[in-house]
Every structure is written in C-alpha cells, then in structure tokens.
Request: fold
Amino acid sequence: MEYDLSRIDYTICGITYPDSLKILPSLDEKVQQKFVVGDKNGVLQCLAIKDEEPVVQFKTLPGRPITSVQLGCSSDSHADKTFAASGNEVKGYTRKGKVFLTVSTLVAETITSMCVIGNDLILCSGRTVTHCKDFNEMTSFTCEDRILDVAAFNAPNSTRIRLLLLIANKGTAIADNGHLTVQTHINSGPSRLAVPKSIRPSEICAFYGAANGSIGLISYNKSELKSKCLVDGQGLGSVMCVGWYSNHVGAHLIVGRHDGSIQLYLTNPQNYEDKLQLKYSYFCGEPITSICGGCIGSDEPEVLATTFSGRIFGLRPRRLLSTAAILSNIPAEALATRRLKLENEVARLEKQTANERDKYQKNTRSLQSSLSVPPLLDVQYELEGATKNGWQEARITSPVPLDMLFIYCNNKLDLETDSAGVLSLCPPQNEKSSDILATIRCQTGTRRLWIHMRSTKNTTIIENIKVLIYVLPAGAPRVSRLFKFCLPMLPFYWQHENQESLNIRRCLCEIHVTGTFSVVEVTSWLSEALPGELPRPANSVKFVRSHTLLNTLLSCEYERGSAIFKSDNISTIADLKDIISNCVVRKGLKININYDISENCCAEAFDIIEESFITEYKKRQEKNLKESLRMLDLDSSIENSEAKSFLCSDYLRVWASPDTSDETCFEQLVYEMEKWYKDWCKLSSNTQFSSSEFKVLHQSLKNCDTMAVKSIFRRNGSMEFVEKV
Amino acid sequence: MQISTVQPIFKLELSHKVTPRIVIIAKYDGTHPCLTASAGYDKVIIHHPHGVVGGRAQRSDAHAEVSELNLSQAIIALAAAPLKEDCTRDILLIGSPTQILAYDVHDNSDLFFKEAPDGVNVITTGKVGKNTDILAIVGGNSSLIGLNGKREEVFWNVVSGKVAAIIPFDFDKDGENELIVGCEDSVIRVLKNNQFIIELAETGPVLCLSPISDVRFAYGLANGTIGVYEEGLRLWRVKSKQNVISLQWSGDWLACCWTNGRIDWRDSSGRVVKRVQLRSNAAGMLLADYRSVGVPDLVCVSDRGEVLGYPPHQDTTGFNAPKKFASEEDRLAITELMNKKQALMVELQHYEANSTSENSTFDIGHRPSSAMPTNTRLQVAITTNTEEGCIQLAISTNNETIVRAALILAEGVFETGETLAKHPPQGQLKPVLFIPLTPPKDVPIDVHIKALVGYADSEQFHIFELTKHLPRFSMYKLTDSTIKNITPGNVTFRITERLQRIYIWVNQNFLLDEKIELENEVQDLHLSFFCLRDRTQLDLEFSTDGQVKFKTDDIRLAGDLIQSLALFLNLTDLQVCVFFILKLYYIKLFLNYYK
Reply:
C-alpha cells in the first residue's frame, strides 16, 4: 500500500452496467480530461470537472439502457468519438454530442461489449460477434458460448483485424476473418480484458480479470495462445472491470471488483509477465462497474470509478489534497460552496420526497381502492458453483442499502454470511417440518452481501432444493423483492473442460437416454442438476465439466431424441439418472434410460484422486495436531529458547505453519467415497451392498488406508477380469 | 459511510501470548504504570519499561523488559489497587479458581491470601459506600465479597448468577459509590448499602461494564450487544457479531474493543467514527498514561502480545494526524450528502413510477407482480392461547391480500437467535397469520413485526412494520377468580395505597382482553391468572385494608411481582412474609440426598 489516495465524489447517475464509463483523451493543451458515462436509464452524458463540480458538456435523453460505452481508437481521427450501445443498436457521438452514426445489428440480443479499431466496430451480443467494417458493411459469426469481452488488433503487414475473444466457460480464442484460429482454456473464468497501451501494434497481448478474482495475462506468440495467472484471487471478489492508470511511476492495471474493492497493480512494461505489484487498495462497499485513469479534477492523474448504483467518484493522491488550494487551483471556498449547494439540494429533495410520501400514504387511507404498483427493486443476484467444501455462494447486489434478508428453504441447509450481516436462524415452524427459516440483519449501508449455502449432510434429497430470498431494503420504498432459485443437485460441476480432457484414460460410466424429447427438454433437465449457465440449445450440444473437489469429469452430449452422459464418477451417473427420471415422470414423457457401468470404475476413479486424498488426510491430521499443540498453551518464546528441544521438528513445523491452511475437505471426500460405494452397489449388477464391507470401507477411509479402499473397490472388478481371461 | 482508520502513537511487543480479558495496568512503585497480564495457564507477565521488577518475578527470556511470575494455580482474574494503608503503591491481586492472593510486587511480599469458596470470576477495586478504604470486590459464582487491605470481609451478598463484571459507580448521585454488577442471568443490578436498588433487564449475559461520565455507563453483552445507560435509561445500543472485550471512554468517544481484534470509536449516539483492526484477536484494552505525558492513552493488547497505544480523541485537533484541512472535511460531507441524495432520488423515482402506473388500469388476469390495493392496512392483535400455552400474535390485512411472511424481531425471547419467522406453504396463504410467542422470562418486551403483504404469486411484497409492547406479565391469562387456588405457596405483605393505583398497575403489567375497572372503593380485589408456561394458577388478593396476598409456588414469580409493584408504588422498603413449604421440602430432600 504505497499510494495514499482519497475519495472525491463527483456526481450520481442511474444504475450502470459494466464498462460504461470512459475518459476522453485531451485534444488541445489542456491537461484536464472529460469523461462519458451511460446508465440504465439510457442517458449518455459527457462531463468535465471544474473545481470538483461536474459541468455537463452534453447529455442525451433517456432511452433504452446503455450497456457498453467505448471510445474511438486513439491513433486515428475517431479518437474523440464516443460509441454507446443499447439493445442491439450502437450510436456514435461526436465530442459535441451530435449523433454521427447509428448502427443496428441483426441479432436480437443485447450488445454487452464492443471495441473500435480504425473505422471498424466490433460488437458482441450473446454468442454472436458482429464486425462492422467502415461502420456499414456487416459480417458476423457465432461462437460456442457467450462472448464476454473482445479486443481488436491489427494483423501484421495487412489491413486485416484479428480479435481476441473471451468466451464464457471456454476461455479465450483468436478470431481471424470470422474463424476461430486458436483457442485456449482458462480455468479461472476470465471475464474482462485490458490491453496495455504500449504494445507493438501487431502484437496480441492483454491482461484479463477473472470471475474467481484472479488476474492474468493472455499472449499470442508464434501462433501459440498462452495464458498465465499473475495474481491469485485470494478471496477477493470477481473482477467486474479493468482499466489503466499511469503516473510518474509507470502504468498500473486497475481492477474493480464485485465485492466493491479497487486495486492498483504496477506492471512492468518491459515484461508484462512479471509479477504485478499491489500499490493501493480501496473498498467502497458496492460493486465497481467501470474504472479508468486520467486527469479529471486536477492536472495530476487520478482513478475514476462508477459503482453499480451509479456513484461516480475519483481517487486522488492525498498529497495533492492536503496542499489542496495551492496545487490544484481550487479556490478554498469552492468546496464550501459545493457543499452548501448540495445541502440545499438535499433539503429540497427531502421536502419533495416528504410531499410525495404524504400523497402516497393518503392513498392508503382512501376508501376508493386503486392498485399501487411500485416498480420492481433493481436488486440482482448470482449463484455460484460449489467450492471444495460444498458451499454455494449467492451474491445479492442492491442499489439501495439493505435492512434485512429473509431466507426460506424447503430443506435443511447450512448457512453462512458476510461479516456485514448478522445471521439468525429462526425456530422451526413446526416440529415435523424440514424447512429452514433464517434472517440476515445488515449493517447500515450494506448494498452487497453474500450467502453461503450447503445442503446439510446425510439428508437425502428427493426433490431439488428451492430457496426463497426476500430482500428488505432499509430505505423508504417499503417493498420487499422476492428471489426464487433452486440449488442444483450436482453443484460441484461448474468448471468447464475441453473435449480433449476426456481422452485421457478414464473408466467412464455412461447413461444413454432415448425417446421423443427436444434439446430444450434436456437443457431443462440439466438445469436442475448443474450450476451456472448451460449452453444455449442448438442442433447438437456437447460439453464437459469437471468436479471441483474430485476432479472427475461429466460429459454431456445431446441432440433431438438422444442424450449421452458420461462420467468416471459413479455417483454423478446415479444422481443424474434419478434427476432425469424424476423430471420425466413429472412431465409425463416416455423415454428409455440405458446405463452402462464399468465394474472397476470406482477403483480407477479412486486411483486418480488417491494422491489428493492422502494430502487432505495429512492436512487434517496436522490440523488436529495443531489444535492439540495449541491447547498446551506454548508461548511464542519457544522459537528462540531451549524449549525448542521439547518438540520434534515435525511438530515445530506444524506449530509454526500459518493458520490459513487449516481448511480441509477430508470429511467431504470421505462422504463422497462412501456414496460411490453405495451407488456402485445400487447400479452394478454384480455387486451387493454389504453393511460389514461398508463399515470396513468407512474405517479404512477414516484411517486413510488406501490399499484397503482399493481392494474393496476392486473386489468385483478383478473377478470379472479373471472371467474374461 | 466513510470510516477512517487511525495510526497508533506507540507500539510494542510483549513476545508472550496474552489471555483475553485478563490484562491490567498498575503502578507497583506508585508512579510508573506497568502492563500486567496473564500469559497462559498459570503465568503472569509484567511489562516494566521504567525499571526492573525484582523479587519472585523472573526476567523473561523472550523480552528484556518483561518479567514472569509463575503461580501454581490457574489465573482467572487480575486487579490492582493501593490496598495497603498509608501507601500509594499498587498491590497486585491475583484471582485463581478458589483463592485470592494480594501481592506487593515492589516489596516482593504477600499482603494476604484468602480462600474464596464460591470461586473467583472477576475482581474490581475501588471505594464503595461510606468506606474510606479502597476495597477489592470479588465476584464469584453467585456471590459478591468486599475485602479491605487487612484481609477483612467488609460486605458480602448473594447474586443470582455468575458475576461477570463489576464497577463502582455513583448511580444515585449521593456522593457515594454504588456497585453496578453484571451477571450471567442477563441482568445489570445496582447494589447500594448491601441492597439491590435497581435491576436493569438486558437481553444476554453481561460481559463488561465501564463508566463513561457521572451519569452514564456502557455495557457489553455476550450476544454482541453494546450500549450506554444514562441514569437507568438506555440511550442507545447496537449489536454486532463479535463479543466485546472492553469498553473505554477516551476523549469524547467510546472505544470498543471486540474479540476479533477490531477496535472502533463511537460518538455519543453509537455511530462508528474511527476503526482499526489489530493483527490478531484482542486480549484487552485499557486507559493508562503509558507514555507519561499527563493524559491517559488507550492501550490495546492483542492475544499475541502486541500492544498499541492511541491518544484520546479531541474534536479540535483530530487524532494524532496532522491538522485536518477544511477541504477534506468538506469532501467527506459531500460524500455523505451524495448518499442522502441518492437515497432520496430512489424513493422519489419509486413514487413517480407508482403514480404513472396508477393511471393505467390493469385487467384482473394481468395483475402486475408487485401490485397491491392502495388502502391495504395491517392489523395486529395479541391474544393468549391456553392450549398451546403461548401468546399469539394475529396479523391480518383488511382485504383479499395475503400475509406472505412475517418476521418478529425481539431480543432474548427466541432460543435460536433474534428473530422468529413464519412462512406458510404456498397453498395455505391467507389474509391472516398467527404467530405463537413464548417469552422465557417475565420482562417487558418490545416486539417488532415486519409483515410482507401482497398476493400469492407476487414477485415483490409490501413491508408493513409495527411495534407492539408486551407487558411484563403477559404470560399470565386472567381467568375466573371463583376457581379455588389450592397452591400452598404464598407471600403476604401490607401496603398503604389506594386500590385505584393497584388497578393501574395490573392494567399496565398484565395482558388483559379489556382493562379492569374499579367498581367501588370498598370491595376487595381478587384476581386469578392462568400461567401459560406451566399451567399453574396465580392469585392476587388485595384487601381494602392494605393486606396483600400473592398465591403461587413460583418464588421467582412472587419476587418479580413484588419488585414490579414496589417499583410502581415507589416503595423503598417492604416487609414481606413468605411461605413456600413445597420448595423448602424439596431443598431438604436435596440436602439429605447429598449428605
């Protein structure tokens, strides 16, 4: 934390979508720059800051929500033009706010990201990339999944343009002339790109920020597309936006996250693969949607950010602030005047709101009943796939401060929440019910909250777990928004793998479903089973996902009338079979389910995870040991005294190890292994469930006797092998 | 919402672990403060930057300015005060599970040693009542002992629970200190002249108490609540996930130290102004002039032995930070104003959107998912349910809208947390919802009700909020007074109040369907109540001649009733005759069993 920046609030706009604020380059001598921002109300405004007060340069009328804002490429004549996307349309604005261009694409989906290079416009909407050459001639192509972000590069020695795409669940790819030439998979789920300003024009290289919070670099060299993770997520929120901030030290990558934090990382322009140095971090409490660097309020560069709810603020070096008046040419009274002005405005608003509130309340006393239809609260939620310990995270973001959340679930759940909330479990509604009710009371000013959910172990789940969350805001619209969602039955399968990963020798079990059903139907079955978004229905769909904890794979391949699911995890196959038959029964469809279970699938799958099983076992042993050592109340003087000799070196190492590595998922692993055995006995024709054998398995798992586990899993497999001979 | 952090003015390492809550600062030579703490099971460490402590205390290997004192017993509590006559040096008091040792660190001599058969939980020092000596007050498992420097017991009293915190405090402003005692049974009591004069019912076991000014003191509970009382009235309280370790009044702010190592400063309304986070969990926070500059600093100690000092806040100069600039203050104010503006704008937009939609009419089949008739109102009634043995809240709307869910917030009423919720299944949604309540104790409760009202298929519901006051004895239902009460247990006493006042007391403290009214002055008042908790009967008999008889077998209930009545009638002294033959019989049985 080397920089000391402090926050200056400039103005408020409507709710903003990611990447909808841009700083315009300065044209003449003047150093101070203007910026453009587009919001959900469809208003695009260009602002300059004078004495910390925003001065509107131009402002459009409200319209369709603006989902992305881009500037012309810095090297050509369109440098000062602004492009704003709303719906499937893009409008180009001059510096004066005149519309000089309107382009509408043929796809119905909303444009979520775009880039401009020369006279070319590249638009991404859903799975489609539209290339608009010279702002009129359009060509488009589709990818396997949604396109999250795009960057354009000039091809060497030609006028062609190469695109670097981030494709949801697939990783990154390079598109040349409408064809994906190279593709590479990135596990962390990159979502935003930032191209360094000082690369050679033909080079392809960009930093990415990912959903798991990590930051990395994608580079394309000698027809090889590589990615490298530079900073781990470290529990930070997922990246919403990335940008650049340059000062006398160098170029910094700025990262804005969903958890409301902003980080400044110094990059090394000589070698972008160098470790990033964290220089500054700020926490604002609500998701950051756009972030840029430039000279806004003074002649010194500062960071400019927008939040989800529409706050626009700068982070300026404090050094400048303390000597404020002299350096940044701000008359001392200007701030006081601004404050006064704002105070008056708030007072006026308070009065107006009080009037409206009165009117609203009068209505409730009137005898004539009319309908009151308040607009829906703009609250968003996201549900993540399960972590190694089985926790699934739901993230709630609100433009207004929250007061309380009320959670209802028809099944027993383990719950955890943010430090910003106090979780309180309510007594059950009646003794027999298996449902759960809980409330989360939020700290003042909370606009973002996560809830971790996990189905309580050893409860058999017959139908999928429905969760209802009622969001109660703290402020005046006294309305509560309801969210309903289902927790998927196979929450661990959220990481995407490429098709090739199936080729590595694994013993796959298979279910083959045939009958009269559509691809949409299969998608609906899978939506009950798998977390995250599924590929959109097409003629035939193929994808592979991996289990977060066990690393087993699940391959889904389906088309009209036929679906094949393969996995080396027998429990997955068993669960999927149950889910599908449940769905089918509910809808009254007629289908055939054939399954093919390889007898030694458990044994082979266990071989693969054996190593991590042993590591987890050791981790847990060490954790227990550490707890015991801690109970001895050894004091820290032990490290430099003769007392050291009391403990063996192993114990000393354990004792000194940091507390952070204490988390183990050994219990979860044991649970999964036992489930394997049960499902194996259930599905396999040759194996009978024996409770004595199960007890042996349980004991050997607990004691990490892998040989014994293997011999149980291999029991019938080896017999069959003999038969075959 | 911007909360700034503070830089410490001094920092030091003790190089020892520190047991949370067992940290004090004492002047063993009469002038220089020494940080003293328990470091593990039976070890006391003394930090002495101003000179060496000799005697039994051994120089620590880990830190040159720290001495260790090894005892053979677990250390439960530490305290220090100049107990010795004609001597200003602090004597160290060490409380172990069964005894108290007073040790003169400077002289290396034991002042006294005393058995504590009731255990030791907490030791405080100070002047109490008319005594001119400084006393050591020891809180045990159910008792309170005052000791002077000569090992003499000055007073002794019984408390209904494990004592967790004691402070000497002039509660009634008569120039003499009373004792404020915080117990595990969630009650803060004031002890004056060996009598409890005030009981303040709280919502959780009391963990710490701290004086703020002549009339105010702060308290912290095991459920994470902290708050401030002024002359027996609660000014504010806030609840946190963490437990409080210590509360100290520093400068014009209340500093709170939480178990997870967070320290925050709060202004007079409880709002957080500054915040810092220690590198590990907190062990203690004290006020002491550790730098010898004439003003006490806030000394924070973490469980890893890290010590940080913060100067008291003063409004004019800010913290130790260089002079605050007007511009920066303006900026903070602007951020705050922007927050306000944003909230107002959201509200305004809400009304605007609502009024535009009012003009358009909707088909009945196409009711929007957030609609509700404008004249919907919510009614709440409190009744008792004898079969279930509970109080029942009936929440209902005045039209066809349904109560989707109801949240009841009340402290100390629900076993699992601070809320009770009802969420009927989709098929059983009605305009009325019943919620059973069973307060475990006889204390007045404010229940906050949040009801979500709309239609069964709504996506957004309207929140109706209401607060209902449950009187102290709401778990007793008025029944037919002609039923003979055969309960042998009773209390009798005599008062000199008109019956009219008794009627008021009953109306205020019991949950009655309709108020009872005085018919004529000469008739005795006889009321029978049905206890919803244990289905027993309670009879209150007030004769016109001032004779009062409460018939119940529940000693606690009888005590609560008398306390409540005495408080209402402003009685400071009341002679009561008690008759609980059954209870006595049980105690006898018990004693015989253990003989």
Q: What stands out?
A: Residues 322-328, 717-725 of chain A have pLDDT under 50 and may be disordered. Residues 509 and 598 of chain A are 6 Å apart (CA to CA).
